[in-house]
Design a protein that fits this description.
Layout: H1 15-26, H2 40-54
Length: about 60
């Protein structure tokens, strides 16, 4: 027999559900810079906002080969 405390079992929300709920309930926006649903200008705006608020993204660095 396996015991699972209340609230720790069952359905796990998808990342998009968590993002949607964060936006609708708290006004927080979580956007991946490489989200295929965004156009290039929208992705660029997200990148610029992220850099303004939090600094350069290490993922954007060019890797020399």
């Amino acid at each position: 027999m396996r015991f699972v405390p209340k609230g720790y079992g069952g359905h796990r929300r998808s990342p998009d559900d968590v993002k949607r709920d964060g936006w609708q309930e708290q006004g927080l926006l979580a956007v991946a810079i490489d989200d295929d649903r965004l156009t290039w200008p929208e992705r660029e705006l997200v990148r610029q906002l992220g850099e303004k608020l939090y600094g350069h993204c290490p993922r954007d660095r060019k890797v020399s080969q």
